[in-house]
Amino acid sequence: MLPYSQALVFGLGASGMAAARLLRAEDTAVRVVDERDTPETRARADELAALGCGVELGVSQVPPGDVDVAVVSPGWAMDGPMLSALRVRGVPLVAEMELGWSRFRGRTVAVTGSNGKSSVVKVLASAFGVAGLAAIPCGNYGRPVCQAVLDSPAADWLVIEVSSFQLETCRAFRPEVGLLLNLFPNHLDRHGTLAAYARLKARLFSRQQPGDVALVPPEWLESFRAWSGGQGTWTTFGTEPEAALVYSPGRITGGGQALDIQGSLFDNPVLGPNAAGVYGAARGAGLASDPIQHALMQFEPLPHRAQPIGEWDGIAYVDDSKATNLAAMIASLQMQDRPVWLIAGGRPKETDFAAALPVLRERVRGVFLIGEAAEAMAAAWGQAVPCQVCGTLEQAVAAARVAARAGECILLAPACTSYDQFRSYLQRGEAFGRYAAAAHAAAEKNLMEKD
Fold first, then answer.
1. DSSP character string of 132-148
2. Are 69 and 3 in contact (CB under 8 A)?
3. Which residues contact 210 (CB under 8 A, 6 or more apart)?
4. Which helix (H) or strand (E) holds 253?
5. Do 307-450 and 6-91 fall under one CATH topology?
6. Segment 44-48 long-range contacts (CB within 8 Å, at least 24 positions apart)
7. Residue ranges of the domains in the chain?
8. C-alpha R_g of the chain
9. I need a labelling partner for 66 at 20 to 30 A (CA). Which of 45, 72, 357, 371 fits?
10. Domain 6-91 belongs to what topology?
11. 378 near 403, Cβ under 8 Å?
12. DSSP readout, 297-347?
């Protein structure tokens, strides 16, 4: 992408701010628009105005005037009125991620999938670091790509977490190593069907050339190769014997080599396939086995991702607020080694909850439901497992604390976004921790009063 003379940036979130800073560093004339007009957006507008950007808040229509490009952050819907109007005018739409990548002079590993992306990005960046290379985790995890490039222009690698939203507007993006971890129904409220969602994911590989590396689970190999038309070297990974890289308990094998990961966080059927993908991506980037093994063995879970947050009176509390789709909830349940009292619900991305029934019957003592999806989940699951509609997360934690006994687990794995009651999954996870401590304190107080 050549430098632009005039650009329109959508949104004053982290991605929009980073894109505006990068464009101004190139002396591009930048206009930034945001639908919101709040104290927070005004403060950010002042920051960008000091850099020479024009900023308009409370905008509901595309402002007049010619621009070379519109930079889009992931939160903006492609079929919304403003982006639709720009497409009618013939203005190219570019993802913030692709803009930042286009200015980077090193190489790129890109990770996509439905679940587990952030942990894989973190462990890959760590493996590069152990090998003595500068690798910046960015995209949906870490800094926006534009900011990463501004901060670390001389880095050796970008390790980018790529979402389907970002891939909607990608035209030239070409990672030297591309990794699809998995694919489950997700974001169907935006993409409509699993097929449409999968085809967007395939765009990650569409610009790859001979010498690049494309890693996918075996069941998606033929589809992704056909949909993308990518010319990279295709490799498969997973637990299936036919995969080129195979996770089995304690080890990853493939290419005549074996990597010992016994005792690591990844040494289980849920995360083991991701470890095989990490191994394949890192090897594809030229790393030796030792730094990959070190990174996998030393990995600690990210906040709000199947994170143990405490144990009171023998009851374990696990925060998996990041489990925002049904497949992630199922995976979270499969990772628990105790009987589970599950807290689920929020704003749903999907409408068919039946896939969870087998694991609910096997592992869950009861479900406490919150938010907009509560009634639908209760209707889908109620005959398989006791369900209680609680409304709020605070009420759900209190009810779960009454039901749970020593040796059991209270798990927040909502299978939904947080936006009906919280600003983000981060805020929801933090609230879960506070409510867990408060429920324990209330139980202790009741015991003392009885004594």
1. T--EEEEETSSB-HHHH
2. no
3. 231, 232, 233
4. strand 251-254
5. no
6. 44/12, 44/17, 45/12, 47/17, 48/12, 48/17, 48/20, 48/21
7. 6-91, 104-298, 307-450
8. 23
9. 45
10. Rossmann fold (3.40.50)
11. no
12. HH--PPTTSSEEEEEETTEEEEE-TT--SHHHHHHHHHH-SS-EEEEEESB
In angstroms, the Cα distances linking 219 to 146, 148, 157 are 34, 34, 29
**CATH number listed for the domain at residues 104-298:** 3.40.1190.10
Residues in the chain: 451
Which CATH number applies to 307-450: 3.30.70.100, 3.90.190.20, 3.40.350.10, 3.40.50.300? 3.90.190.20
Residue 301 · residue 119 · CB < 8 Å: yes
Tell me the two tokens of residue 385: 């497992």
Encode the chain (451 residues) as per-residue pLDDT tens digits: 778 999 999 999 999 999 999 999 999 999 999 999 999 999 999 999 999 999 999 998 888 888 999 998 877 777 788 888 888 889 999 999 999 999 999 999 999 998 899 999 999 999 999 999 999 999 988 899 999 999 999 999 999 999 988 898 888 999 999 999 999 875 656 656 888 889 999 999 999 999 999 999 999 999 999 999 999 999 999 999 999 999 999 999 998 899 999 999 999 999 999 999 999 999 999 999 999 999 999 998 888 988 999 999 999 999 999 999 998 999 999 999 899 999 999 999 888 999 999 999 999 999 999 999 999 999 999 999 999 999 999 999 999 999 999 999 999 999 999 999 999 999 999 999 999 999 888 776 665 555 5
User: Which helix H or strand E contains 95, and what residues bound it?
Assistant: strand 93-95
User: pTM of this prediction?
Assistant: 0.86
Residue 38: partners with Cβ closer than 8 Å, 6 or more residues away: none
